[in-house]
């Protein structure tokens, strides 16, 4: 998977919003993680995969020219159909932040990230009337559980991950059997695309979907 990481400024605004949201959820306890170890997350990969694959039908429905990507016009139609009332600027921010390979089109893995980010950002602290309405309880539960996984890794509760967080999480289950340094380093590098030593929820999502292998059993063009 290619990553267009050259222009980090286009991610800054959205990543800051996500960071604040994660801090808010961690402090309020609304996103409290039920995970006790990294192994407990890995064991859930099959359920994550099943839950996210439900989005394939929505993606194909709005990929009107069947070219494997959703352009801005198709995305606007999709968001309108899902009754997501976002400003033009918000849609553009999301599009640019999720179009990681700079192809000017949203591929399936990017579409999953985009909807999960919308779900998280529209998730209300108090009033459920403003929440993102999802037809699939399984998909909603999947997004909530992915947030839990991130919060489990975010040990200091600052809304982003650092290498120390990841090492601590990987060694938490068996402190007497520590993960090799190369393993923790590799896992962190897979998430830290812009190499700034911090991992936003957006970066985590892309890496997480890759680990789960959402596209591994589907015939898709190489990205």
From TrEMBL:
Q: Where is the EF-hand domain?
A: 50-85, 86-121, 141-176, 179-214
Q: Which residues form the signal peptide?
A: none
Pfam families the record matches: EF-hand_7
Q: Keywords for this entry? A: Calcium, Repeat
InterPro entries given for it?
A: CML21-like, EF-hand-dom_pair, EF_Hand_1_Ca_BS, EF_hand_dom
UniProt GO MF annotations? calcium ion binding
**Gene3D superfamilies recorded for this chain?**
EF-hand (1.10.238.10)
Q: By what name is this protein known?
A: Calcium-binding EF-hand
Species this chain originates from: Corchorus capsularis
């Amino acid at each position: 998977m290619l990553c267009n990481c050259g222009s980090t400024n286009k991610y800054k605004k959205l990543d800051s919003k996500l960071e604040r949201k994660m801090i808010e959820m961690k402090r309020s306890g609304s996103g409290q993680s039920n995970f006790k170890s990294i192994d407990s997350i890995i064991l859930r990969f099959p359920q994550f995969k099943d839950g996210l694959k439900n989005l394939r039908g929505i993606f194909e429905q709005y990929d009107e020219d069947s070219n494997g990507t959703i352009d801005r016009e198709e995305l606007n139609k999709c968001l309108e159909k899902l009754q997501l009332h976002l400003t033009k600027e918000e849609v553009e921010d999301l599009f640019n932040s999720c179009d990681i390979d700079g192809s000017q089109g949203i591929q399936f893995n990017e579409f999953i990230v985009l909807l999960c980010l919308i779900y998280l950002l529209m998730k209300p602290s108090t009033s459920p009337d403003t929440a993102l309405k999802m037809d699939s309880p399984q998909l909603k539960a999947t997004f909530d559980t992915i947030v839990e996984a991130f919060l489990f890794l975010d040990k200091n509760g600052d809304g982003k991950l650092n290498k120390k967080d990841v090492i601590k999480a990987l060694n938490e289950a068996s402190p007497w059997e520590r993960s090799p340094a190369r393993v923790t380093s590799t896992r962190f590098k897979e998430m830290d695309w812009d190499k700034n030593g911090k991992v936003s929820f957006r970066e985590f999502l892309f890496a997480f979907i890759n680990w789960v292998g959402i596209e591994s059993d589907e015939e898709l063009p190489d990205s």
